[in-house]
Amino acid sequence: MTPSLSYKIAVLVFLENAAGEHLLLLRAKPPNLGVWSPIGGKLETATGESPFECAVRETREETGFEVTTDDLHLFAMIAEKAYEGESHWLMFLFRCRKPIGGLPPDMEEGKFGFFSRDAITRLAIPETDRRALWPIYDQHRDRFVALRADCAPGQPVQVTVEEITPR
Fold first, then answer.
1. What is the CATH number of the domain that holds 16?
2. pTM of whole model > 0.85?
3. Residue of higher predicted confidence among 19 and 84
4. pLDDT > 90? residue 58
5. Which of 1, 34, 81, 144 is most exposed, with the fewest beta carbons within 10 Å of its own?
6. Is residue 70 part of a domain?
């Protein structure tokens, strides 16, 4: 049985430069302290912020890069149960169609780097990103998929596809 934990709602934004390299953040804070991940953050639920609005805001706040909702493609929604045994997450994954011009400066959240898709496989990244998020990106970045992932500590991550839109 899944433990009774708090539920958090967040976005991840997959940004690329003109060369097709992915912008990742080496996180300086939990969750994901000390590992590389796409930018993102929690929705401001008190203001009724939508996932698209959150993706625009987080992109601006974390990178200084201005995007609009038209620049974003929602390619996945994933419900993560018991992530790190701490909380449940409902994650909205966006691919930005507009290339980012350069490497953002380091900030309180961490430092940035650009990486080829192949190089990401050799980086320190969260296990759920390795087993679920990046394969989802590779397979579904141009369409939409809804998934759930059981991330219970001590167990292998189990990912179940709930729906995939046609190409």
1. 3.90.79.10
2. yes
3. 19
4. yes
5. 1
6. yes
CA–CA dist 134, 15 (Å, integer): 13
The amino acid at 53: E
Q: How many domains does the chain have?
A: 1
Given a contact cutoff of 8 angstroms between Cβ atoms, the answer to whether 65 and 59 are in contact is yes
Amino acid at 129: D
The answer as to whether 13 is a domain residue is: yes
Whether 156 maps to a domain, the answer reads no
Query: Number of helices (H) and strands (E), helices first, in the chain?
Result: 4, 9
Structure tokens belonging to residue 89? 């997450």
Q: How sure is the predictor about 167, in pLDDT bands with cuts at 50, 70 and 90?
A: low
Q: What long-range pairs does 126-135 form, CB within 8 A, spacing at least 24?
A: 126/31, 126/32, 126/35, 126/37, 127/157, 128/80, 128/83, 128/157, 129/35, 129/37, 131/156, 131/157, 131/159, 132/78, 132/157, 132/159, 133/12, 133/38, 133/78, 133/93
Predicted pLDDT of residue 7: 84
Owning domain of residue 97: 9-77+90-125+137-146
